[in-house]
Structure formats: structure tokens, C-alpha cells
Design brief:
The structure is a single chain. This protein is an alpha/beta fold. Helix content is 28%, strand content 20%. A hairpin with a 5-residue loop joins strand 1 (33-38) and strand 2. The protein is globular and about 50 Å long.
Length: 210
């Protein structure tokens, strides 16, 4: 049975990646890397790959988002800080730690080479709807931002998930990703932090605000 997406542009992008007219759950489980959300140009984007992302995960097309990421036991203080909170954007501010050994891993030529090789296998797409009426545009924008998490939840095989600028009810949707090892959240708002304990099983966690 084919999967139904809320956002049809997501469905179109997935079909483009897989070269199919329709996809089912087993197709989505093959996707190992997913980055999705609002871009800094006020449109929406998706990036996907069937290839296994580098381990540990590091990208070289942004800033230093993984240099000070939380790992292992360092994730627990963030869980304790935000547990039970409402209307929050998770942030590592004050919890990130400088680790010279980790920084050496991050900034090696090998890490950069692995990212460059992997990035060639990443499928990218963007989406924007133009509305002459500002209220209509706001309604479209808010609707996409608040519903994208439902489509994200369908990608059950993802190992690295990167979300930017979305509104999500809570963190229980992470139950859908048994193989998730690295998560990045950028300016992503949660109405509640139910399920935040699920972050503790991650190998890498990066939470950023602008």
C-alpha cells in the first residue's frame, strides 16, 4: 500500500529520489539521511540520501554545528533542563563542552572527504508557494511548518535527521526512528517536551538557535 503524505511536494521529492510514481513504507525505510524544514529564504527544503551517512556525522557545508554537539552522557543535562517545559526551542547553550579529541576528529581531512563523497549522493528539493494576499501566504506557511513533522515521521529508516524551523507537538515522534543516531534541531519549537528522554539514546545531538 502506498504512503500518503500531507505535503505533496514531499511525496514528489521522494518519488524523484526513488524513481517511482508511488512509494510504500519499505521504500521510505531505505532512506538513511533526511534534512527538512524552513530555509533562511522563507521557503521549505528537503534533502535525502539512500546512502549511510558518515559516522560520526559531520557536515562541511554549514558552520560548526557538530563541533560542540552533545554526545553520550552529555545529552542527559539537556533532557533534565527541558523536561516538562512547554513552548520551547531546545538549545545546547551553556551545556556544550569543548573536547579537543572530538575537535580533532571533526576537522580531519578524512572527515571532510567523507562528507564530500556523501553529499554527492544527497537528493535536494525546495518548495515555495506564492500568494498575493499576505494572510493567505501566512496561512500556507504556518500550515506547512506545523504539519511537516507528520511526513517526517514516515521515514523510519533514518540514521541522521536534521530539522530546521518547524513547529512540532512533542518529541514522541522519535519513536518512529529505531536507527536514529544523530539529530540536529535548528529553531524548532515543541509545544511540549513529552518524549524528550528518547534523546538519551542518540550518539550525537545538536540543538541551535539563530
Amino acid at each position: 500500500m502506498s504512503v500518503e503524505f500531507i505535503q505533496k511536494w514531499i511525496e514528489s521529492a521522494v518519488c524523484g529520489l526513488l524513481g517511482k510514481d508511488a512509494v510504500d513504507e519499505s521504500d521510505l525505510a531505505k532512506i538513511k539521511y533526511l534534512a527538512v524544514g524552513e530555509s533562511f529564504q522563507n521557503d521549505f527544503f528537503i534533502e535525502m540520501s539512500l546512502e549511510q551517512p558518515p559516522k560520526p556525522f559531520v557536515n562541511f557545508d554549514g558552520g560548526d554545528e557538530w563541533t560542540y554537539c552533545l554526545r553520550g552522557a552529555d545529552i542527559k543535562p539537556l533532557i533534565e533542563k527541558f523536561k516538562g517545559k512547554t513552548d520551547v526551542e531546545l538549545s545546547m547553550f551553556g551545556l556544550d563542552k569543548e573536547d579537543e579529541e572530538w575537535e580533532e576528529i571533526i576537522f580531519t581531512e578524512e572527515s571532510e572527504s567523507l562528507w564530500k563523497k556523501f553529499s554527492k549522493c544527497v537528493f535536494k528539493d525546495r518548495h515555495y508557494e506564492k500568494h498575493t494576499d499576505l494572510d493567505e501566504w501566512d496561512a500556507w506557511y504556518d500550515g506547512v511548518s506545523a504539519s511537516l513533522w507528520r511526513d517526517i515521521s514516515l521515514f523510519t529508516g533514518v540514521e541522521v535527521l536534521r530539522i530546521q524551523g518547524l513547529d512540532i507537538p512533542d518529541l514522541t515522534f522519535l519513536d518512529n526512528f529505531p536507527d536514529l543516531r544523530a539529530l540536529e534541531l535548528v529553531e524548532t519549537k515543541f509545544a511540549k517536551t513529552d518524549g524528550i528522554e528518547k534523546l538519551e539514546r542518540l550518539e550525537q545531538l545538536a540543538c541551535w538557535l539563530d
